[in-house]
């Protein structure tokens, strides 16, 4: 290791290029890895996500006003049915007019079905129709617990803030800030007999339920409702599992829900892969380019009786140390660049650089993967060097790696153009 550090200190330009090249590539590997993981993880944190379904009508995510009540009353396989509305009108917080689409109307069962965490208050406070809850993000902007007891008004209606709940940031629900009791609002006459674009119905199916059969039963209930109300054509219901809803074709991101393209996430997954390959090739190529300098050292060790396994181990150790240092630099750079990247991507769920145990595990796996591949590749191309061959010029493998890197650059440009289109 001492000889490696001495080599790096004597070849400052090589060291700078290698550190900057590998750090830059890994910066974007980290950012896009976090993006892909966070997108895939939407809604998977709910304990019963594989038993919770959104009920939609005619390949849309909305339903009719009383659908939750009808389903819970008529289908025994449904353990819970939850009515959710998102509110379009503007409202005031302590006289301050706030923007639209930040208020959610739900029933008390909403908090139980989605296991909403309370920072202040409890679901029992929702029994009072005039009470409202705010999200943690809004509370922090307005003095945290200072919001408790403050007024929220919409026209002639006034609500008192009685609780603080966790944000909706990593869920399929849009970033609502206020939650009020839907029973405080009497439905409009048209809501009683038709579909409503701002109403969603979620159900929890019992374990072991045949979902295909359940969907048929739900469709029958919906069909009977529309027939009773003399709707001009037949409508059919569908079920979308909660952990699939974010990427579902029926979810266009318009009706109170976040939505993302599955193809976009796939493209970013490929970007991560190509950046990873490019970083490895860059590291290996620079080491091969400097094989002449270090080749003499390797050849001397051969003469002194060093085994190939020991030389390989030394190379792996050097690779691991170098990769670890550059990865730490890349993490710092990713944290600095995350806001501008979010501004450019305009992702529905902004990327965050996390340091949870699951992410630390991913980071360690990336370090080990890069270190092992780079170490083995460099060891394979340099361990056979002898004194007589240490002054040879570039190896053919260097040209091959340069060609591969050129192809990857073309692919990355094509991906960038495709995403822009």
Task: Kindly describe this structure.
- Helices cover 50% and strands 16% of the residues.
- The strands form 2 sheets. Strands 1, 3, 4, 5, 6, 7, 8, 9, 10, 11, 13 and 14 form a 12-stranded mixed beta sheet that branches. Strands 2-12 form a two-stranded antiparallel sheet.
- The radius of gyration is 29 Å and the shape is elongated.
- Helix 2 runs antiparallel to helix 8 (262-289).
- It is an alpha+beta fold and 421 residues long.
- A hairpin with a 2-residue loop joins strand 9 and strand 10 (157-165).
- The chain starts with a helix and ends with a helix.
- It is built from 12 helices and 14 strands.
Short description:
By secondary structure, the chain is α+β, with helices and mostly antiparallel strands.
Task: Considering the chains and any ligands shown, give keywords for the structure.
421 residues, alpha+beta, 12-stranded mixed β-sheet, two-stranded antiparallel ribbon, 12 helices, 14 strands, 16% strand, elongated, disordered C terminus
Report the span from N to C terminus.
48 Å
Mean pLDDT: 75
Which value, in Å, is the CA radius of gyration? 29 Å
The oligomeric state of the chains shown is single chain
- The total count of strands amounts to 14
Q: Which structural category fits the helices and strands? A: alpha+beta
Sum up the overall morphology in one term.
elongated
How would the blueprint of this fold be written?
Elements: H1 2-10, H2 12-40, E1 52-57, E2 63-64, H3 67-74, E3 78-87, E4 91-93, E5 96-98, E6 103-106, H4 109-113, E7 118-120, E8 131-135, H5 136-141, E9 151-154, E10 157-165, E11 178-181, H6 189-193, E12 195-196, E13 199-205, H7 211-228, E14 237-241, H8 262-289, H9 291-303, H10 308-345, H11 357-382, H12 396-420
Parallel strand pairs: 6-11, 8-10
Antiparallel strand pairs: 1-13, 1-14, 2-12, 3-6, 3-13, 4-5, 4-9, 7-10, 8-11, 9-10
């Amino acid at each position: 290791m001492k000889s490696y550090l001495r080599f790096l200190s004597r070849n400052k330009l090589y060291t700078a290029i290698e550190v900057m090249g590998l750090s830059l590539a890994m910066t974007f590997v980290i950012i896009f890895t976090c993006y892909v993981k966070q997108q895939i993880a939407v809604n998977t944190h709910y304990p019963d996500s594989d038993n919770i379904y959104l009920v939609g009508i005619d390949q849309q995510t909305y339903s009719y006003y009383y659908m939750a009540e009808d389903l819970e009353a008529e289908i025994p396989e449904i353990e819970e049915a939850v009515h959710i509305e998102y509110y379009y009108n503007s409202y005031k917080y302590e006289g301050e007019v706030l923007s639209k689409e930040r208020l959610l109307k739900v029933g008390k069962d909403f908090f139980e079905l989605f296991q909403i965490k309370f920072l202040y208050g409890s679901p029992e406070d929702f029994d009072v129709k005039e009470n409202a809850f705010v999200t943690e993000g809004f509370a922090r902007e307005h003095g945290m617990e200072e919001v408790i007891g403050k007024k929220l008004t919409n026209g002639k209606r006034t609500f008192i803030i009685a609780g603080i709940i966790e944000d909706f940031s990593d869920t399929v629900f849009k970033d609502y800030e206020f939650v009020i009791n839907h029973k405080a609002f009497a439905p409009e006459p048209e809501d009683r007999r038709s579909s409503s674009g701002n109403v969603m119905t979620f159900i929890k199916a019992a374990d072991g339920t045949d979902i295909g059969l359940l969907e048929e039963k739900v469709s029958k209930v919906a069909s009977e409702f529309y027939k009773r109300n003399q709707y001009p054509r037949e409508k059919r219901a569908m079920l979308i599992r909660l952990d699939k809803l974010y990427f579902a074709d029926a979810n266009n991101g318009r009706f109170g829900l976040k939505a993302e393209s599955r193809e976009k996430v796939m493209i970013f997954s490929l970007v991560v892969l190509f950046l990873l390959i490019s970083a490895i090739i860059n590291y290996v190529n620079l080491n091969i380019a400097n094989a002449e300098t270090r080749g003499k050292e390797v050849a001397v060790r051969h003469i002194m009786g060093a085994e190939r396994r020991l030389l390989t181990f030394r190379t792996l150790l050097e690779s691991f140390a170098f990769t670890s240092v550059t990865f730490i630099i890349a993490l710092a750079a990713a944290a600095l660049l995350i806001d501008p990247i979010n501004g450019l991507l305009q992702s529905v769920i902004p990327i965050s650089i996390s340091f949870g145990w699951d992410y630390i595990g991913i980071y360690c796996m990336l370090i080990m993967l890069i270190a092992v591949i780079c170490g083995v590749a460099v060891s394979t191309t340099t361990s056979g060097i002898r004194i007589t061959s240490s002054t040879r010029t570039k190896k053919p493998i260097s040209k091959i790696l340069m060609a591969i890197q050129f192809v990857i650059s073309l692919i990355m440009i094509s991906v960038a153009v495709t995403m822009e289109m």
